Amino acid sequence: VYPPLLPMAPKKKPPGKKKEAKGDAAPSIGKKAAGAKKEKPAGTPKTNSLPMLGANDTTMKHAALEQQHEYATVIQQFGRFVAAVRQVSRKQQEIKAMKRAAHRAWVENIKQERKKEERRRKAEKEKEKKKQEERNLKQKFLEAAFEDDFKVVQKAVAAGISVDFQKENENSPLSEAAVGGAMQCVKFLIQNMADVNSKGQYGRTPIWRAAFGGHAEVITVLLKAGADPRITAQGEAPILNASGDAKQVLESWDESETDKLLVAYNKQREMLKQAEADKNNKTVNMLQKKISDAEKTDEAAQKVLCKARISLEQRITEYDLTVLDGKDELQETALSYVKNAEQELAEAKEKADLAREELLAAKGALRDEQENPAPQRPGIDVDYDDIIDVLWKDVHKKVRKSGKWPFVVDPTTKTQTFLRYRDIVYVNLLSSKQTESDALRRSIIGAVRYGKPLVFDMMDVDLVKEMRDKVNAVDPSCYNWLMTNTLITDEKFYQLVKPSDPAAYQGGGWDPGVIEAYRVIFLTSYGDPNEEFLNE
């Protein structure tokens, strides 16, 4: 659009005498003096005819117009140039801001992972330290029992070391005390309900080893506590290895007295086992309550993390809009909101990581108490270079043969980047727009109709419960259809089609060859994924 043409300034006449009106002209109305002469206005023609433009005047007008058009063209070109420069500048600022935001997120993620790894190493180091201290204390316990070092034995029992502990095919503390003739330790261990008939290396009992060592007083104490001198080791009874006073004690002992003592001994052992079981049950119940509390804390922390992540996504969207609209005055404010949201997300993520670590620690403590081995995480480790063959192409048909959909756990987010640049139907579970009921329905039927992978990205949040609820909002059975693949095998996808959908979805008869390429992929960058979902 050209600017309006400016009027040309009138040419100035050279200064000279003004012409007076002729004498026979009528005087002007309003003149005080009669016969006053009236001056003609400048440019008034002498006759009634219009002035004639000469060739020179027309040429000058055209030249002026052309010059004005040139000026207008230059102004427009300059304006377009300025607008283009501003647009490029805004785009560069947007790219720089996105790079800064991505860099901040990457740095923050690295910090979080380092803190998490440091806490894990510290916990493992502390756990290993306690185990080593316990091993050392047990070794000292055995040595002290043999050497009759009563203080060390007393300290070990007070520290919670069982009086009956023994490694496989090795001897108990009471057996070591018996062979060493440590009378004080033998009496102390028996008072603390040590098993007087426990079998150690080569099946030898404490009384068998006491007889072998020739400790008559120890044999007497053991016999009165219910030790059975008839138990053999490698076919030999204790009396066969005894000599001197030790042999006399065994020979003079009435074995019928042993039968009476064994009744009381067995009853005592049963009571001890029951007390130990009650203690273990109490500990287990306490740990189970701790796990329950940790699960609630973890769930609450995950909700806060989810809210913080959604808030950051919204703030980034708002900032992008200010950049696209060229609202420079709002960009700084929007960017400050993004930074605040990033800080809130970092704090929420750290709390969520701590809550998840406490939950895993509580579960580990329960496993240790019940002496259960740690469960092996299902799945396989895949190098990123092989992700195309394993996940995308399914070269060896492992995914298809398993009957389950793949759940990719990748804290580096490389797989997420790889998938987003593929021909897929991508659903960000943190996006309220993409997880709206009708939008999610269209994503599901679109993936089926055109045979594309349907990717549910949980980002770095545990969104299993939220994902289940949002999918079931499409249809109460939709989540089950997805997980069991009855969506395809029973053609349940037809039930999700609405009359308002495009014609390509209407009428049924979808191509099975196209549908065959459809599959579901679950993706998360959260390092400790939901165990229940892993088992699904």
Short key terms for the protein model shown above:
four-stranded parallel β-sheet; 536 residues; 3 domains; mainly alpha; 60% helix; Serine Threonine Protein Phosphatase 5, Tetratricopeptide repeat; 19 helices
List the helices and strands and how they pair.
Elements: H1 55-147, H2 150-158, H3 173-180, H4 183-191, H5 206-213, H6 216-224, H7 238-241, H8 245-252, H9 255-324, H10 328-370, H11 387-392, H12 398-402, E1 407-409, H13 414-420, E2 425-428, H14 437-449, E3 453-457, H15 464-474, H16 478-484, H17 486-489, H18 512-515, E4 519-524, H19 531-535
The CATH topology assignment of the largest domain is: Serine Threonine Protein Phosphatase 5, Tetratricopeptide repeat
CATH architecture of the largest domain: Alpha Horseshoe
Mean pLDDT: 80
- Give helix and strand order, one letter per element, not per position: HHHHHHHHHHHHEHEHEHHHHEH
Q: Which stretches of 5+ consecutive residues score pLDDT under 50?
A: 1-12, 17-38, 40-50
CATH H level, superfamily name of the largest domain: Ankyrin repeat-containing domain
The biggest sheet, with number of strands, parallel, antiparallel or mixed sense and barrel status, is: 4 strands, parallel
Provide the spatial order of strands within the biggest beta sheet.
1-4-3-2
Supply the helix-strand structural class: mainly alpha
Q: Count up the helices.
A: 19
Number of domains: 3
CATH class annotation of the largest domain: Mainly Alpha
The share of residues in helices is 55-70%
Number of strands: 4
Rough shape? elongated
InterPro entries: Ankyrin_rpt, Ankyrin_rpt-contain_sf
Protein name: IQ motif and ankyrin repeat domain-containing protein
Keywords: ANK repeat, Coiled coil, Repeat
